[in-house]
Design a protein that fits this description.
single chain, 200 residues, mainly beta, hypothetical protein yedk fold, nine-stranded mixed sheet, five-stranded antiparallel sheet, 12% helix, globular
Length: 200
């Protein structure tokens, strides 16, 4: 599952590429981790939201509330569940990125493998969003079974959308949107690096 991705384009360039207006004060880093702010296209606007729906947790020892955990991936075969259903039916968005990362290797020595489309242009993956009491507006990335080269790295991958599918994902019926949740059948670039998965 994707727990790290890159968006290396400037805010104005992202807005232009996705024909979106840009909200003042949108703030996001080049590398996005769960619980941090990322760029999202929602309602024709480029916005900054927190990556992950907050999941309430309690301490097993004391029963006291803990800091919420960001649930940053929504499996496409689970979009009808209570956690995701209303966002999927009512609030679908585009998540622009230039690459996503998966961890490969032995536990304790995992490295980053980056996956992207050919070239260095940004592309969009399917997302859903909602407003939360804890973090304000937040989003989750929709995942599906991996295929082709991506399946050599992980058994799941983000739902990559082609430009002619952007409108259908955001504005189509839930049935139409669900039909787009399939593995990418185009070429992917895989960059296996020596970077530690967890930065030290």
């Amino acid at each position: 599952m994707c727990n790290l991705y890159r968006m290396t384009k400037a805010q104005a360039e992202i807005a232009r590429m996705f024909n979106a207006s840009s909200t003042a004060g949108a703030n996001f880093a080049d590398e996005v981790y769960p619980g941090y702010s990322g760029a999202v296209i929602a309602g024709g606007e480029l916005r900054s939201m927190v990556w992950g729906f907050p999941l309430t947790q309690k301490s097993k020892k004391t029963g006291e509330p803990l800091k919420p955990r960001p649930v940053n991936n929504a499996r496409s075969d689970n979009l009808g569940s209570f956690m995701w259903r209303y966002s999927f039916e009512e609030r679908r968005c585009l998540i622009p990125l230039t690459a996503w990362a998966e961890a490969e290797g032995k536990r304790g020595a995992m490295t980053r493998t980056w996956l992207s489309l050919s070239g260095d242009d940004a592309f969009a993956v399917a997302g859903i969003w909602r407003t939360s009491d804890e973090w304000g507006d937040c989003y989750s990335m929709v995942m599906t079974d991996a295929a082709g080269a991506a399946a050599e790295v992980h058994n799941r991958m983000p739902v990559i959308l082609s430009p002619d599918q952007y409108e259908e994902w955001q504005e189509g019926s839930p049935e139409e949107a669900l039909s787009l949740c399939r593995p990418w059948d185009g070429l992917l670039k895989i960059d296996r690096t020596g970077e530690h998965w967890a930065r030290r």
